[in-house]
Amino acid sequence: IHQTGQKDFQRMHENYPDGFANLQLQAFIEDMQVCYQKADLVICRAGALTISELYCLGLPTIVFPYPNSKGNHQKHNASILIKRKQALMGDSIQPKTFTKFIKDCLNDGNLLIPMYQHTNQEKSKPEEMILAACQKLTIEYARNSATRKKETKQI
Predict the structure, then answer these.
(1) d(CA 133, CA 54)
(2) What would the pLDDT profile of 39-84 be if each residue is shown by its tens digit?
(3) What is the C-alpha to C-alpha distance for residues 137 and 50, in angstroms, rounded to an integer?
(4) Which residues contact 37 (CB under 8 A, 6 or more apart)?
(5) CA 30 from chain center: how many Å?
(6) End-to-end CA distance of the chain, in Å?
(7) Burial class, 93, CB count within 10 angstroms (exposed 0-12 / middle 13-18 / buried 19+)
(8) At what angle do helices 126-154 and 73-83 cross, to 10 degrees?
(9) Can you point out the beta strands (E) in 18-154?
(10) Gyration radius of the chain over CA positions
(11) ∠ CA 117-50-120 to the nearest 5 degrees?
(12) What pLDDT is stored for residue 29 in this prediction?
């Protein structure tokens, strides 16, 4: 399932790479719960709510933080999943090989197993997991903000 946004839907529909027979292209997704249940791999931006949901669900993820986010906060959000070995930073995958990388992940489930293993050890009530993920994001963001302020003052 690929959410394109209304603006890019037609262009993406016309130009999608070959080899994705099970692809569902949607301009907007109304029910993320259904999408998460169907997902083997999530490719997304790194907004705080998205990262919190993925942290709780334990889904393997490739994260592309929005490069113009204020204070680079999306990269800091993504770091929680990266440190947990649940995600890869999308910019670490070469653009020329990205499509092949995705096909390989989806065709060979063994490639995703390392990204699943750690999450099954941290089961808890969903409400507790969401709260813990939000707290971690808040603490990490506060630490990174303080560090950036110190670095700015030293310059």
Answers:
(1) 9
(2) 888 999 999 989 988 988 889 999 999 989 888 999 999 999 999 8
(3) 11
(4) none
(5) 18
(6) 45
(7) middle
(8) 130
(9) 25-26, 42-44, 61-63, 87-89
(10) 17
(11) 15
(12) 93
- Asked whether 48 and 134 are in contact (CB, 8 A), the reply is yes
**Closest-CA residue to 102 (of 4, 45, 30, 19):** 19
pLDDT of residue 115: 81
Sequence-ordered list of residues with C-beta below 8 angstroms from that of 106, at least 6 positions apart, any chain? 40, 41
- Per-residue pLDDT of 87-139, as tens digits, reads 988 887 887 788 888 888 878 777 788 887 766 555 555 566 666 767 777 77
94-102 LR contacts (CB < 8 Å, sep 24+): 99/17, 99/19, 102/41, 102/43, 102/62
Look at the block and give the residue holding tokens 């989806």.
106
Write down the pTM of the prediction: 0.71
